[in-house]
Amino acid sequence: MNAVVVGIDPRRPSVPALLWAADEAARRGLGLRLVAAVPPLGGRHGSGDAFTQHRTLRERAESALASTEDFVRELHADLSPVTELVDGAPVAVLGERAAHAALVVVGSRRPSRPTEVLRDGSVALPLTARAGCPVVVVREPEHTQVYPRTIVVGVDDPHSGEAAVAFAVHEAMLRRARLRAVWVRPPPAPGSADDGLAECRRLLAGRAAVWAEHHPGLDVVAEVVCGQPVQQLALVSQSALALIVERGGAAGAWGGSTVRGLLHYAGCPVITVPAPER
Q: Among residues of the chain, what percentage have pLDDT more than 70?
């Protein structure tokens, strides 16, 4: 399929997510697939009310797909989106599509508390944990009016995170944006003025120089900061086009608690890239 897949919520389609997905498909020259998943009825024999609710939700999904398809065609005349209405749990359906997709994009409202990211019906966190391709969680429009236009990639080990870095480099080149690599380390131990900070900066600067050498025209800024990863990355995300991190499966990849925190606090779309299997 190798398309950009966007999950359409029948109850409240996310306009920011749809805009992001359509623009990204156009930038990459890929197809766009709009997928609405309607959860199945509980139990073997649903009640009359359950059948009515299910039918109503399917009708809403059909309407949402039609309206979002028209919206995309107005935005990008050269895009011919494919629509798909599926009976199934949204996380499972989108996870299956992710196996053959370039990206999966979903919307998310800002929860009032971090724990609400795990609420029943939430798609963003479980999808990022299991999808086989990068997942983009879009809550708000990009900061396109902020200059310089910046893509942020979080690295927590200068020798790992290659999948996230490769994605971030490509994204920055597509958008003609600056790449800002941020390595967050724990604060220095009490009584230590440096605690290896200078060496970390040297390592990351060397890695950034390699990226710039392999990609002429790429503007790279590398910095090492001390603090808590979610707090520091959320801070730099406030003026970014996107925040990219690698997750799961390898040393140096961000864990679920960090991803969950970023989905709550980040001020721009968050892209999680699966770490390669070792």
A: 86
